[in-house]
């Protein structure tokens, strides 16, 4: 999920998806939020929390894959809710989240709330167990008011909202060094053609314009899924992208092949890659954590990766508009088309319908929580977390790249689309899509790679 440092937001959920597919039964969440005045809290302005009522003596268990040190801002962000309502939030982060959640459910002891890392997994919970119930009306109200339709749709299954978004990330970024660009006389490209022209200029001057890495253990290949998704949006537009993600058109359709070949015009071009690491083949062996570090050495000049990649740069790196590192939006192919931003998020799933759990769900979907979380992270000097909640004040984020990311999410001129692999069935999005992209970058043809993925798509999904 978005708060994790040093790896992509959790996507290795195959064990959990398999367990759910075997028919686990979860307790659902339903009903409306409680109302009334909460107990007086020391040092807290409780006016915004009166809607949740007096929850003194209650406990809410929370299970997530967000572990230390990224867990502390989350824990701190719950304190106003606890102080003003009297409820206690018991936080548990585990690196074994994906394996242990189904075990707990099977044992009849699920957490009250878990942070589900992908909408595809949420859909599995809903469709395969029949136990997940729609969110309380208060959560629906918050989502309708503070989130774009893209995020609401990602938390919905068959048109019904089951989970509100939590954190978010902007994936359509190209990292670069403003200081290196200024010294070389380079300007940030605003179209794909300008980006190619800049790449050619860097080559002509003896440099390597791009660096990349897709090695991520069991999840090797996922950075290329983002590359293809971003390029699909720019080549074919949002409507065709939606058809591809939902399998209304085959995975190996001509539109997808055209987009992947455009990715190949960058990443399979030996003149363009792989600055700081080697030739094209080194992309498969370079870890995604290391992939952008050559920007600091000027052995490459551009690296496409999401906002959360900021956490991989050395402590003390100046990540700002005129600093050592920053990012620009991956430019459109058609400069007259709306800018389309690829996004991701995790979602709040509840396994209890007790009033205190529903109240906490509502709090997590509110501007109060988003701003408390932003302040808590800033107080601890942490960056890399943002929210798509439009009630978030970007000024509460300490990092310039986080503020920039939040402003992008709040820009109504942008078109947003959710990470495609996170929406696809796990057998594709968390398996063959990764494998197919890895085979492609190591020499397999576009046609063979896409056909391999298409053949794995589960029947009826």
From TrEMBL:
Lineage: Bacteria, Bacillati, Actinomycetota, Actinomycetes, Pseudonocardiales
Name of the featured protein: ABC transporter substrate-binding protein
Highest taxon, organism lineage: Bacteria
Parts of the chain that traverse the membrane: none
Keywords: Signal, Transport
The family this protein is said to belong to: Belongs to the bacterial solute-binding protein 1 family.
Annotated signal sequence range: 1-27
